[in-house]
Amino acid sequence: MLEKTACRRGLVRVTVFAGLLAAYSSSFASHGAPKMISDMSAEERTSLLHDIETSVATALGGRSFSEDDALPVTARIRLDSDTNLVVVDLDERLGPKALSDDMQDLAELVRYHVIIHLDRIDGITGIHYTYGGFDREHWPENQKGDQSPRSSLRKRREATQPVAVVSPGHGIYFHSTYKDWRAQRETVNGILEDELTPVLAAHLTSDLERDRVSVHNLRETSQVFMHQPSSNPWWKMGARYLLEAKMPDKPEIWNSRPDDRRRDRERREDLRSRPLYANYVNADALLQVHTNAEATGKASGLRVIVHPRAADKRLAGTVLCSARELIHTKQEFAAYGVQRAPEVASDNIENGLADMPSVIVEVGFHTNPSDAEHLKNHDFQQLAMRGVAKGYRLFRENKPCEDFAVEAQPDVVGNPGIDVKFPVTIRGNPLFPVGIWTKESNCTREKGCESFQKSVYNLDGLAKYKVGYLCKREDLDKPPVEITVRMKDFDGVVSKPAVYRVQCARRTAARR
Which of 43, 274, 374, 454 has the fewest CB atoms nearer than 10 Å to its CB? Predict the structure, then answer.
C-alpha cells in the first residue's frame, strides 16, 4: 500500500493499491500530437478515457466529500466531443453543494492528478462536472441570476481609466484546530507559492499601471509592516486579512462564511474574498496569479484557467498569446511552453463568483524542477507578467493577438544618384516607441552591417518614415540589393523581418 499526499495542505491523504499506482504511472508515455476529442480514433479515445479514469480513481481513492459528508465519492468519466471537455459525473447527492468550498477542494485534487492527460487534447478543453447526470444549475441554490447591468460608475469610468483587481494566490491563514498561522501551500523545488505570487503580482501591477490601468492589488507589497496578530510581515498574509483591515465594515467580503466551523474556514474565506471584492469595486477584470502543481512533476509551462464565459475565454486567449510572445523574447526562455488554448473549469470559485472577465494565470509548475528554476528567475518573472498586462491591453482594445512583423513591399527599380523610398508597414501590436534597424546585402564589412535607423513613437510617426536606398554605379548589372528591415518594441519584442529589394539599373531602364 502506498500513500499519496494531496496538493493542498488540509486535503486528506488517500490510499491506493500499488497496482493502481503502477497503471497510473504508465499512462504518461508519448501519445503523439494533441487532437480534438472529435478527431481522435476510437482507440485513442479509449486509451485517454482509461488513463483519466485511473487518475481520478487515484485522486478519490475512497475519499469522503467533507467533514459533514463521510460517504465516499464516486465518479464516472466521459469525453464530450461536442464541447471538447472531460466530463466528470459525481454522485447526485453532491449537486446542491456544487458551489461549495468543499467542491472547490475536490476539483483541485482531481485536476492535480488529471492535468497531465489534458495535454493530449487540442484546443480549449478542461473538466466539467455534473452530478448524477445533471448540471449544477439543476439545483436552485446554484442558480445565479444574470449579471447585473454595468453600473453607471463603471460606464463613466470606461471613458477614463479601466480598473483591474490583481489577486496574488494564497498567503498565510489561521488554522483553528492547530491554533497557528500557516501557508496554504508547501515548499516544493525551493518555491513556496504563497510567497512567490506577491512578487509576480508586483511586476504585473507595475506593467498595468504603465498602461494607465487603476490596479487594486489584494496582497500587501510592503516588506516593512507587520500583521500583529500573526507576527508575520503583511506581504505574506492572505488577501482576507488585508481586506479585513481596510474594510472592517464589509465582513460580507472577507468573512463570507461566518457560520462555518471547519478548521480551515479562514482559508476558504480568503479564496472567496477575492472575486467578492472585485465585484464590490465594479472591476473591469480580475487577474489572478498562481503557480501550478501536478502529481507526476512532468507537466510544465504557463496555463490559464477560465470560467466558460465568452469574454473570459477571449481574455485568456490574448493573455496566453501575449505571454508567449514576451517570454520568448529572451533566448534562454525560447523553449518555455505556453498553453495554446485556455483550460475551462466551470466549478472554480475564484472565477465563477466574479461578475467580470476573470482569469487564473498559472505561470508555471512549481512541481516541475525546470519550471521552478524559471519561476525563480527575475527576468522570466518580468516577461511573463508583462505578457499578462499586454494580453489585458489587447482585450480592452478589442484587438487580436498576432505576430509582430514588418510587412513586405513590392520590389522596385532604381538608378544611380536617385533615392528609392520604401514605406514601412507592420502587423501586430507593438508597444511604442519602436526602434528600426536595416541591413544591406551588399555590405562588405565583417561586422556592423546592420545599422540602427530611427525610433518612432506612434503609428503616425511610422507612417511618415521611409527606408531609403541610393543606387551606386557598382550596383549596376548585379543582383538586386536586399535591405532587411526589422523592429524592436519597448517591451523587447523583435519583429519578423521583411526584405525590400532594389534592382539598380541604368537611367533609361529606371521606373517605379
Answer: 43
Q: What is 153-396's CATH topology?
A: Aminopeptidase (3.40.630)
Q: How far apart are CA 406 and CA 101, in angstroms?
A: 50
How many CB atoms are closer than 10 A to CB 77?
Answer: 19
Q: Where are the domains of the chain?
A: 2-138, 153-396, 405-509
> What is the average per-residue pLDDT within 398-419?
93
Contacts of 293 (CB under 8 A, 6+ apart): 7, 112, 185, 188, 365, 366, 367
Mapping DSSP onto H, E and C, the string for 17-73 reads CHHHHHHHHHCCCCCCCCECHHHCCHHHHHHHHHHHHHHHHHHHCCCEEECCEEEEC
Dihedral sign (CA 219, 285, 344, 102): positive
Q: In Å, what is the CA distance from 246 to each residue of 70, 224, 243, 249, 484?
A: 38, 17, 5, 9, 56
* pLDDT tens-place string over residues 29-73: 467 899 999 999 999 999 999 999 999 999 998 788 887 888 999
* pTM of the predicted protein model: 0.84
At 447, the amino acid letter reads K
Q: Mean pLDDT across the chain, nearest whole number?
A: 88
pLDDT score for 152: 42
CA distance 59 to 287: 28
pLDDT-based confidence at residue 235 (cuts at 50, 70, 90): very high
Three-state DSSP state, 379: helix
Residue 438: how many CB atoms within 10 A of its CB? Answer: 21
Taking the alpha carbons at both ends of the chain, their separation in whole angstroms is 81
Tell me the C-alpha distance between 219 and 166, whole Å.
9
Match 511573463 to its residue by C-alpha cell: 384
Q: What dotted CATH number matches 405-509?
A: 2.60.40.10
For residue 355, how far is the Cα from the chain centroid?
19
- Paired with 440 in beta bridges are 483
Which are the contacts of 224, defined by CB distance < 8 A and separation ≥ 6?
Answer: 233
Residue 307: which of 362, 344, 355, 349 has the closest Cα? 344
